[in-house]
Amino acid sequence: MCQQPSIPLISEKIVFYGAGSMAEAIVRGMIARSVVASDHVVVLNRSSNERLAELRARYSVLASNDPEQKTEYLRTAPVIVLAMKPKDAAEALRTLGPLLNPDQLVISVIAGLTIRTIQGLLGRQQPVVRTMPNTSSSIGLGATGISFSKEVDEKGRRLALNMFEAVGLTSVIDEERMEILTGISGSGPAYIYYMMEAMIAAGIRGGLSVEQSGELTVQTVLGAARMVQQTGETPAALRKKVTSPNGSTQAALEVLDKGDFFETVIAAVNRCAERSREMGAALEKELSK
């Protein structure tokens, strides 16, 4: 029997204004899961033809840094995803504002950039969706926080949710909670990778091969996450189950406790949230210029 081609969930053209790792992760995830057709995705950046050529070759998307083409894409796209570096956002948004019509949906994936600041730099009360995804979106296992401006209608809310639900879990939150979410899930993969680096290094120093130590660490982290997910038990409960009194696991955890591991992780999350606020405050200052 001939299999029917899947119909993309989103028919609107989506323009990614910025071509960094987060933009690529979302593009890869959406195309892989038939959320949107590749010829309905446009990626723009400021200067790098090489980067755009990479994205065209990998995903068959449209891509351009030609000023006239960029202007036309931005002027006509139903959905624009802000994915440039924070330092480039103020200038880009001031240029973008006059091109927009009231029906275009603006979705931001820029850390620290508030809805108020986005609308202020655009110079208009545009429908804005503020999000904080993570790069696991590229394999359909992302975690994305989402907040909506009051101008976003039900169609816009559904479109934004469709985009990010297709590449992982979504959580609609009040915007004032976005910084702490950034500290947990936005930057969270990096903390886990860092822990994995240390575990792999310990295995190698103990005589395991690079491959053995890497495979064992990856499977251990994957298995631990799945145990929490599938059993419904808390991490604390599962930890206690595998920690025998005076055993080797307890000895290892005592070493972590001596290094104040628990509070250090909390401090890292809070510092990430604080830094996100700092970046947002720096962008907000651009409103007075």
UniProtKB/TrEMBL annotation:
SUPFAM superfamilies reported in the protein's UniProt record: 6-phosphogluconate dehydrogenase C-terminal domain-like, NAD(P)-binding Rossmann-fold domains
Signal peptide: none
Keywords (A to Z) from UniProt: Amino-acid biosynthesis, Cytoplasm, NADP, Oxidoreductase, Proline biosynthesis
Protein's job: Catalyzes the reduction of 1-pyrroline-5-carboxylate (PCA) to L-proline.
Gene Ontology terms for molecular function: pyrroline-5-carboxylate reductase activity
Pfam families: F420_oxidored (PF03807), P5CR_dimer (PF14748)
Annotated NADP(+) binding sites: 83-86
Uppermost EC category: oxidoreductase
Domain Pyrroline-5-carboxylate reductase dimerisation: 175-279
Metabolic or biological pathway, per its Swiss-Prot or TrEMBL entry: Amino-acid biosynthesis; L-proline biosynthesis; L-proline from L-glutamate 5-semialdehyde: step 1/1
Intracellular or extracellular location(s): Cytoplasm
Cellular-component GO terms for this entry: cytoplasm
Residue intervals of the Pyrroline-5-carboxylate reductase catalytic N-terminal domain: 13-112
InterPro entries: 6-PGluconate_DH-like_C_sf (IPR008927), NAD(P)-bd_dom_sf (IPR036291), P5C_Rdtase_cat_N (IPR028939), P5CR-like_CS (IPR053790), P5CR_dimer (IPR029036), Pyrroline-COOH_reductase (IPR000304)
Family: Belongs to the pyrroline-5-carboxylate reductase family.
GO annotation terms (biological process): L-proline biosynthetic process
EC numbers: 1.5.1.2
HAMAP family in the cross-refs: P5C_reductase
Catalytic activity: L-proline + NAD(+) = (S)-1-pyrroline-5-carboxylate + NADH + 2 H(+); L-proline + NADP(+) = (S)-1-pyrroline-5-carboxylate + NADPH + 2 H(+)
This protein's name: Pyrroline-5-carboxylate reductase
